[in-house]
Design brief:
3-stranded parallel β-sheet; mainly alpha; 181 residues; 9% strand
Length: 181
C-alpha cells in the first residue's frame, strides 16, 4: 500500500493525492451499490424492451438508469460523510437501529418521508464531530429517536417561536418568523 501511495504521489503530485486516495477509498462502496442497482432491474421491463426492440442506448436510458440511480445517489451521499475506510457493517448496524428491518435494503426514494428524515439525520450524525447545528431536525420524531440519533454530542437546535421544545438540547435559538427584533 505504501508503494502505491508513493507511486501515486509521483504521478499526481502532493495537492491531488488526497483527492485520488479519497476516491479509491469510497470506490468499492459506490461500485457495489451501483451494481446492486443494475441487478435490481425489473425483468418484465427488459422483456418489454425486447418486445419493442429498443436499442441498447434506450434500454440503458429508460430501464437501467432509473433502476441504478437511487443506489448510486445514496452511496455517494454516504461516501460524502465517511472519512477514511467505509465500514459497511457499522453503517448497516447504525441504520438497523433507526429503520425497520424490511426497509434496510430499499432505495431511499422508496422510503416514507419519516424514514427519509431518519436516514438523513443518521448520515449527518455519522460524521465525526463534537457538535452539530441543525434547523428543526427532529420534526415528527419521538423522544427516543431524538436521543438515539444525537449519540451524546452537543446539539444547537433552531426552532420557531412556540415550537416543540426539546429538553435534551444543550442550547436553543428561537426565531420570530425570520424577522429581526
Amino acid at each position: 500500500m505504501v508503494s502505491f501511495v508513493i507511486t501515486l504521489l509521483i504521478w499526481v503530485g502532493n495537492q491531488a493525492l488526497t483527492i485520488y486516495l479519497s476516491f479509491l477509498i469510497v470506490l468499492p462502496l459506490i461500485y457495489t451499490n451501483t451494481l446492486a442497482g443494475f441487478l435490481n432491474v425489473d425483468p418484465e421491463m427488459l422483456e418489454m424492451a425486447e418486445t419493442f426492440r429498443l436499442s441498447r442506448w434506450k434500454k440503458f436510458l429508460y430501464i437501467y438508469r432509473p433502476s441504478f440511480m437511487p443506489f448510486l445517489i445514496s452511496s455517494c451521499r454516504v461516501a460524502l460523510v465517511c472519512e477514511g475506510k467505509v465500514d459497511e457493517k457499522q453503517l448497516a448496524e447504525e441504520l438497523s437501529q433507526i429503520l425497520p428491518p424490511n426497509s434496510l435494503h430499499q432505495p431511499i426514494s422508496q422510503l416514507s418521508g419519516g424514514m427519509k428524515r431518519r436516514v438523513a439525520l443518521a448520515r449527518a450524525m455519522h460524521y465525526p464531530c463534537r457538535m452539530i447545528v441543525l434547523d428543526e431536525p427532529f420534526i415528527g420524531l419521538d423522544q427516543n429517536m431524538r436521543l438515539e440519533l444525537r449519540r451524546g454530542r452537543g446539539l444547537l437546535r433552531a426552532a420557531q417561536l412556540g415550537g416543540d421544545p426539546d429538553p435534551h438540547a444543550d442550547a436553543r435559538a428561537v426565531s420570530s418568523g425570520g424577522a429581526h427584533p
